[in-house]
C-alpha cells in the first residue's frame, strides 16, 4: 500500500512518525515488541526486554543528549526566571521552589525521551541495514567495536 514498502523487502518495522517516536520513548516502549520495558528507572535503560529479550546493552546511545538538553533547558529556564522576576518581583524562596523542581523534572524527562528516541532509531536503522540478519545473533549497533 505505501510506496516505501514496495521494494520487496520483508520489513517487520517502520520508522514511526516523530510524534509516535517521542511517545514511544516517553513510555519506554521496546523498539521490537512495544512492551514498556525499555527503562529500569527514569533515565537508565534496562539490560534487556522482559518480553522479547532484546539486549539493550548493545546499543550505544552515549551522553550526547545530556549536554545538549542541559544547555537548552538551562537557557529556557533562565529566561523564564528573569521574566518572572521582572514581572512579579517574587521573594527568593519562590524562585527556589519554582525552578529547582522544574529544572530537575525537565532534565530527567527530557533525557528519558532523548535517550529512548536515540535507542529506538538506532535499533530501527541497524535492523534496516542488517536486513533480516537479526536472528543470527549478530550485533546490530553500527558504532560498536568488538
Ligand atoms: Zn521487547
Automatic annotation (TrEMBL):
It comes from Croceicoccus pelagius. It comes from the Bacteria. The keyword Membrane applies. The keyword Transmembrane applies. This is Membrane protein. Keywords: Membrane, Transmembrane, Transmembrane helix. It holds the Pfam family DUF983. The lineage of its organism: Bacteria, Pseudomonadati, Pseudomonadota, Alphaproteobacteria, Sphingomonadales. The chain crosses the membrane at residues 66-84, 90-111.
